[in-house]
Amino acid sequence: MTHTSARPSARQGRDLLQPRELTVRRSVSRYAEGSALLHLGNTQVLATVSTDPKVPPHMRGKREGWLMAEYSMLPRATQERLGRERNLSNGRRHEIQRLLGRAFRASLDLTPFRNQTLVIDCDVLQADGGTRIASLLAGYAALHDLCDRMIHAGTLSDWPIRHPVGAVSVGLVDGEVRLDLDYQEDVRATADLNVIATLDGQLIEAQGGAEGTPLDPDLYVQMLRVGIVGAGDLLRRVQSQLK
User: Fold this and answer.
1) 233 C-beta neighbours (distance < 10 Å), count
2) Any domain includes 76
3) Rounded to 5 degrees, what are φ and ψ at 197?
4) Keywords for this entry (predicted)?
5) Domain assignment of residue 5, yes or no
């Protein structure tokens, strides 16, 4: 039977179900309409929000605006230099961008942004596991920054973030369920999930599964529940630093 108690482990003093330390600063970009710099353990992500005064063809004439996300990693975000992502057909990159876009659109009422597109750029400055999770949390903080600025400027009358969104990774490592994996844990995981959920525990998306061997469905559900709680925990940490 898998042991999942939150006991200390060798993972830099963290309990198995304890996320890494999180810090976030908003309004870090001089030019972006909204921005945030987030550290999750050793993973660092800069997120910016830009407003574009047009929408894609499928949104023309609609009551709502549109939102899209872009994701990239700097060449020295990892131990060995990565080539710059000049090839826009990169599959992993597009997968993450679609994940981020779906999550942010589920979070935000886009009616106040009619005939506009919000573009959230998430750039990984340093990677140590959980880059898409850190990108989502940083993007949420940048959206909060945008909306707060617009409220204070009088260009937005009602708060449009309907469902604050959090995220966390969950993995099965050495037969143990662990929360918020760093890189060394992630490469050893025999199952992993990225869980995106609201503050009140509603699921937006779960992405992942078994690596190499099938996963018991009951254990999958257990990992999902752990992830929903962990996503809420990290979201509360972000919110406490945005005030």
Assistant:
1) 17
2) yes
3) -150, 160
4) Nucleotidyltransferase, RNA-binding, rRNA processing, Transferase, tRNA processing, tRNA-binding
5) no
Query: Chain-centre distance of CA 70, in angstroms?
Result: 12
CATH of the domain at 160: 3.30.230.70
User: Residues annotated as binding site?
Assistant: 92, 130-132
Domain count, the chain: 1
- pLDDT, tens only, 60-83: 999 999 999 999 999 999 888 988
**Residue corresponding to tokens 């942010």:** 104
Nearest to 100 by CA among 72, 126, 58: 72
Can you give the pLDDT at residue 4?
Answer: 41
Detail the residues annotated as belonging to a binding site for phosphate: 92, 130-132
pLDDT in tens, 19-42: 999 999 999 999 999 999 999 999
Residue 12 banded pLDDT, cuts 50, 70, 90: confident
For residue 235, the SS3 value is helix
Range of the domain at 100: 22-240
Measure the CA–CA gap between 175 and 177, rounded to whole angstroms: 7
